Structure formats: C-alpha cells, structure tokens
Amino acid sequence: MEQGSGGLESVTRMMEPVATVLELLGVVVIILAVVFATIQLMRTWRAAPKAAYDQYRANLGRGILLGLELLVGADIIATVTAPLTWESVGLLGVIVLIRTFLSFSLETEIEGTLPWRRHQVSENPTR
User: Fold this and answer.
1) In the chain, where the domains are located
2) C-alpha dihedral sign at 44, 32, 56, 49
3) Average pLDDT over the chain, rounded to whole?
4) What is the pLDDT of residues 97-108, one digit of tens each?
5) Poorest-confidence range of 23-27, 47-51, 73-77?
6) What is the C-alpha to C-alpha distance for residues 90 and 55, in angstroms, rounded to an integer?
7) Fewer CB in 10 Å around end: N or C, the chain?
8) Distance (Å, rounded) from C-alpha 45 to C-alpha 53?
9) What pLDDT, on a 0 to 100 scale, did the predictor assign at position 66?
10) Helix, strand, coil share (%) of the chain residues, nearest 5
C-alpha cells in the first residue's frame, strides 16, 4: 500500500509545477493581450476612434477571458494536488465562482448579449 501512496505523491509533485506554469501562462496571456490590443488601438485610433475603442475593449476582454480560464485550471490543479481540506475545497469553490462570474460578465460585455440570447440575436440582427 505504501508503494501506491508513493506513486500518488510523485504524481502530486509532478502536478505542482504544471499548476505554476499554467498560472504564469495565464498572467502572460493577459499581459500580451493588453500589449497587442494597445498596439492595435494606436494603429486604428485616428481613422475611427469609436470603432477602435470598441475593438480595444473587445480584444482586452478576450485576452482576460483566456487568461482567466488558464488561471482557473491552475487553481483546480493546485487544489487537487494539495492536501484536501474543507477549507481548501471551499477556497477553490469561491475562486472558481468569482472567476466564472468575471468570465460571464466579460463575455456578455464583449458579445453585447447574454449567452442564452446569442442565438436569437444572430437570427434577427435588427434587435
């Protein structure tokens, strides 16, 4: 039985760096999104400021959404590899809930409609 426990420990040790890499990747994605969206904004600002601003917000939102997804994945892996307690599971639940709410809000802002109404809007673009 100790051998199985040792195998589980080695998998846990291997997953810790994976969680760290995902966290770093999530942060890098958000930073790159800000940089690229800002470059795009500067290129298009003079021609159409309103459209450039709207596109800037959408690009920032997409980058933040992708970064948040990576961070949620990292949190899940980190929590699963840590000793499970009610506190750690509760903390993961709160973190995922907050990040899911942020993702939902950003996606609604980018798309301009609630996710379950997207199909209706695409069928009738005059609304």
Assistant:
1) 2-123
2) negative
3) 84
4) 898 888 888 888
5) 73-77
6) 37
7) N
8) 8
9) 93
10) 85, 0, 15
